[in-house]
Amino acid sequence: MSRTLVVGDIHGGFKALKQVIRKAKVTPQDSLIFLGDFVDGWSESVEVVSFLIAISKTNPCIFLRGNHDDLCHRWLMYNEKPEQWLLNGGQSAIESYEKITKKEKMLHSDFFENMVNFHLDKKNRLFVHAGFQNLNGPEYELHKTTFFWDRTLWEMAVAIDKSLSPQDIRYPKRLRLFKEIYIGHTPVTRIGKSTPTQAQNVWNMDTGAAFKGPISILDIDTKEFWQSDLVFQLYPEEEGRN
Questions:
Q1: What is the CATH number of the domain that holds 135?
Q2: What pLDDT, on the 0 to 100 scale, is given for residue 162?
Q3: Structure pTM?
Q4: Which of 105, 122, 208, 226 would staple 23 via disulfide (CB 3.0–4.6 Å)?
């Protein structure tokens, strides 16, 4: 039976990605939605992207653009290297890309180019790396970078009083637009969690793979989830973004 599986932030942790794919027993019948931030952090950004390109040939896949993916793409295309990117995992991506040819780099650049900023399925479930701010929905967003940099959507969902009904006039309009919203970007470890976490109708899949957490996969229909080992334990000689 086919499943729709959503995958949280990866950050160059190829060993952990392979492990959690095995744990979830992913088959070619499964559809996969990757929430972005495939690169930057651990040493195998190239291997992660090559794997994603390969799995897209066997499975229906959707790849959301993360802020780290956008920054890496800008480096590949225009040699942009902002210091803040280098200090937050970018240097590891640059070193990873020293392993491959110019032709392979262009193939990866095409992969980054073809990512989407958000995805809305037939059941009114939204998938986006970070969030959106326009009260009428993501299709009305003026600044596209919001999709992969925003933190207000998650902060708002976490802060809402649980007793407040969606029918209440004070309930945020952004959250009423969709049945469910799936995001990454802001690690749930910031609120003391280590597994995919729901706040209102928002599911946060960033379980801190770039730091001290695992990579997570969730079946969006059953809410069953699988996690890799803590990624930093699979790269004991590295610092990641710690």
A1: 3.60.21.10
A2: 84
A3: 0.96
A4: 226
